[in-house]
Every structure is written in C-alpha cells, then in structure tokens.
Amino acid sequence: MSPGSFATADSKRRAIPLPRPFSNMQTFTPDSSIASDVIPSANFGERNKGRVPDMILLHYTGMPDAEGAIAQLCTAGTDVSAHYIVLEDGRIVQCVPESKRAWHAGVASWAGEDDINSCSIGVEIVNRGHDWGYPEFPLRQIAAVIALCRGIMLRRNVPSHRVLAHSDVAPSRKKDPGEKFPWHSLANSGVGHWVQPAPVVRSEGLRLGAIGEEVRGLQQALAHYGYGLSITGKYDTTTMEVVTAFQRHFRPAKVDGIADHSTLVTLQALLASLPAETATAT
C-alpha cells in the first residue's frame, strides 16, 4: 500500500504544514507503509537497556485542534512526543522512528514494568478529549488506527493483550482514549484483547471504603491482568481509579469506579481468555 492511501483528495489539498521551527529537521523513512506524512519530533531518545517494544499504547491528543497537537508533540522543550499521530480524516503522521523511545506514557506501569516508554510504541489519536467536548471517533480514523496497529503488531510481534489505553497504564492521571473509543471494533479486526462485557444489572458491588477478602481478590485479579495495584484488601482511592480505568476500556457502558457484578464477571472472562503462558505468570 502506498503512502497516503487513507488520504482523501480534500485532505491532500489541506496538507499539514511542518511545525515552523523544525521544518529543516532531518527526516526519516516511515516504518509504516500507510504513513502519509513524516513530521520529525525533537523529543525522543534511545530505549533503555535495548528494550524491544512489545506494547502499543493508544492515546487521544486532548487538544482543541490537530495543528496544536502536532506542534506540542514535535516541538523541543515540551518533553512529549509519540511515534504516530492519526488524524480525524484517517491520515497517519509518523514523528519518531519505532526503534526510538518516544515520550508519551509519563509516569506509568504495567505488568511489573515502569518504563512504559521503553517497551511501547505510542499512537496519538486526534480527538479533543474530555476537557473539550469529547466527540465521537470518526470511522475513517478508527479504520486507520486498526490498519496501523495491525502492521505494528506484525512487525514487532505485539500480542493482542498488550494493545492498551493510556488510562490502563496511568489510571490515576489519564482517561484517554476514553469510554467512547471503540475497542470492540479493533478487536473484531484482530487488534487488542476484548470480551463481550457482562450486562450491567442492579447490584451492590465493591466500592470506596470496602475492606475484606473480596476486595483482595479483586485487587489480585486486576494486578494479574497487568494493572499497577498493591494487594491490601482495602478499596482505596487507587483501587477505585484502577477499576474506573478498567471500565473505560472493557466495560464502557457504566464508568463509576464501583466493582459491580458486570465489572467482576468481565474481568474474570478477560483473565480466562488470556494466552496460557500469560495467565499462569503471576
């Protein structure tokens, strides 16, 4: 597939300008054949200890417009970047080579690792986010995200259960890409781990302030899946934030931080459907 395959005639007429201060930065050959533009970011480094990326982390840009988001991700001194940006019209911009460490995850952890930038490839999806009205993700944009992620998964041998949300690895800080992001559509195309969420029914559930073995079991299950969570038996603020992040990704019909019957059943179904080598690793 040739570069720019997702671009429409109209989008080609409105090509994104390079951020002015970096128009002369050395460019590079994109890793993905469907990347229509390369806008090099000044913000990247080497992956620590030669870590090979085996995770894809999906974000939304959370800014009012695409141009501002691109400038933020490419300008020296902002200390943020991503490997890819997926525009609303389906165009894909690469900003950092996949071999390099982009700065997109921040303070984060997953499955015992706390240098998520070194083990992941970051994909920013242009969307204003919760602070700016949080619109739906256009179908052509999601199609581009799917195609991009499928290519990365093949090139980098990324397992489905390591295609994650920014909110999964940083639940106390982040909401993106949020409950409107169609994870089920990605999973139907082989991208990401997903089970049909259990229906939301009236139930008490576990909530902030609860104490006991049920809470401990919930914390153990969430930690087993990968979430950074201490096993205390207390349903504290951290536990509520992790449950909220879980719901945004895997049970988006109701995001309230209460571990109700639907949340617990969905979590157990996800654990049961993990690859055997992952499910037995604790």
Summarize the structure.
This protein is of the alpha/beta class and 282 residues long. Helix content is 32%, strand content 10%. The radius of gyration is 19 Å and the shape is globular.
Oligomer: single chain
| 3D shape | globular
> Which sequence of strands runs across the widest sheet?
1-5-4-7-3-8
Query: What is the CA-CA span between the terminal residues?
Result: 41 Å
* Low-confidence sequence ranges: 1-13
What keywords describe this structure?
disordered N terminus; Lysozyme-like; Muramoyl-pentapeptide Carboxypeptidase, domain 1; single chain; two-stranded antiparallel sheet; 32% helix; 6-stranded mixed beta sheet; 282 residues; alpha/beta; 10 helices
How does this structure look, described?
The protein has 282 residues and is of the alpha/beta class. It folds into two domains: 180 residues, Peptidoglycan recognition protein-like (Lysozyme-like), CATH 3.40.80.10; 67 residues, Muramoyl-pentapeptide Carboxypeptidase, domain 1 (Orthogonal Bundle). Helices cover 32% and strands 10% of the residues. The chain has ten helices and eight strands. The strands form two sheets. The chain has a six-stranded mixed β-sheet with strand order 1-5-4-7-3-8. Strand 4 and strand 5 form a beta hairpin. Helix 7 packs across helix 9. It is globular, with a radius of gyration of 19 Å. The N terminus is likely disordered.
